[in-house]
Fold:
Amino acid sequence: MTTRAASRPVGTVTRGTTNPNRLRRMDRWIAATHGAELRRSADPVAVDLGYGAAPWTAVELLARLRTAAPRTRVVGVEIEPARVAAARPYEREGLVFRHGGFEVPVQGSPSLIRAANVLRQYDEEQVAEVWQRLCARLAPAGPGSRGGLLVEGTCDEIGRRHVWVALGPEGPRTVTFATRLGSLDRPSDLAERLPKALIHRNIPGEPVHAFLRDFDRAWAAAAPYASYGARQRWIRTVGDLTADWPVTDGISRWRQGEVTVRWEALAPRGTFA
Structure:
């Protein structure tokens, strides 16, 4: 794959923490919800931005996306040259690694950019600018297409709890909360994994705080369903949430321990509008 002209990468080096299977929940959600767009693309390119000290997440992303869109290619992008050199032996058909940052050094416009655990170290005030830069690199919308997708979020070290924002060329669309249900005491446990745009806004008066409060209340009210298992309790809880919050997905995703809400309902007051 031809790259853009060489220039200094935009961004700073992350800690690089990574583990196999860490991003499985995000990957499966992308394959389920964005697979049709990847299949429609003439050249479906997905970017694993800031894959870290080891290439596992890029390798896994290729495998999972190809279950939904077999022609997908993945480019792993890292700002630390030594990490790129260490990943090169893992290149194969459909998978390459490039040195770069938020400029996204690939030819054309990617169908997907995944930036997991990348913005955690940045200041909240920097997030909107990074989002705008990355959204501008996405494949544009067109007839029958919503365009490319940016998925930016945070998870714990072994991928049990994860929250991400999905953005299109036009900006943020949704927020998804995903968890291994057996590890959950209450939904607000996910607050520790809110992405940088939201994590400092989990305070009274902010929409995300109100959402997590209502989520916990619905979870408590659904306690009788716990005898049928955590999944049934979660499904009941999310079903109750739909009365007051714009949940965009359905029971097939709820069964996976997920719920997706429109961004506008959770957006911080005064920013990221």
